[in-house]
Amino acid sequence: MTPPRLAETNLFKPITVGAVTLQNRLVFAPTSRFRMDDNHSPTDLVKKYYEARSENNGGLIIVEGAFVSPQAGFFWKSPMIYTDKQVEAWETIADSIHSKGSFVSLQIYYRGRVGDPKKLKEHGLPLLGPSAIYLDEESEKAAIAAGNPLRSFTVPEIKQLITEFKEATIKAIKLAGFDFVEIHVGYMYALAQFVDIATNQRTDEYGGSIEKRSKIVLEIVDEVVAAVGAKHVGIRVSPYIKFQGGSGGDSKLMHPIAQYAYLFSELERRAKEVDFSNLARCVD
Ligand SMILES: Cc1cc2nc3c(=O)[nH]c(=O)nc-3n(C[C@H](O)[C@H](O)[C@H](O)COP(=O)(O)O)c2cc1C
């Protein structure tokens, strides 16, 4: 049997995702390149980088993780979508990718316990995680030295985080012109820290059971979908991750299949009930 030519495989067939029809199924994974300016805005170099990847493409570019707010954490030369200037700079990049016939999603995230304690302190902001559990000795020393020890989110701070995801989504979709946002629930950043028992030992409504650990993610999904529509929203998860202290299937107290099956079933239930039928999902 002769194998089909690559050009004739599904990889190069159009597919409708949310509100757009991609010309192929090639998706550029979010890749942090640390090329933003000191105000966390994309530079000309960033524009060139994404233009080069959208040329002769027609598929989907997922732009590297951008902080939803200063409280989301800071990281050297990493992007944010918060100020007007940042939003305008992202609009230029989204326009440029569209002008080449490709489509674009912005990954949005929040660092949580792996935020930069020193930078946060400089901005008068606390270092917050689901629980006060440090990643390692080094991060504990850095937080203490900065005078910004890790503490757990209060419930009002959780509600504020949810609002910040919603506002960043509105800025990305309605102002900057991205086709999608991708909510980052992977790689043990803040939202994955809530889902994983290794980092979430809360005893309130946001921890203590599979459902309660998933609650923050589902509340964000509901808020952003209400704000911009399900066709513009994707989610990334990494259930087996061990990076940055993920339990990765090793915990006797939480199995990734049970934990994430619940999360997916809740997304699916919403898809059936409120027409999330075009929810764009990217699952590792
Ligand atoms: C330099 C670099 C930066 C990355 N930045 C991000 C990021 O911002 N967000 C994210 O979800 N994944 C990020 N990743 C992970 C990639 O999206 C991807 O999942 C990983 O490279 C594995 O790709 P593979 O499955 O094709 O091997 C990054 C990877 C690399 C190598």
TrEMBL record:
Domain of life according to the entry: Eukaryota
Name of the protein in question: Unnamed protein product
- Source organism (scientific name): Ambrosiozyma monospora
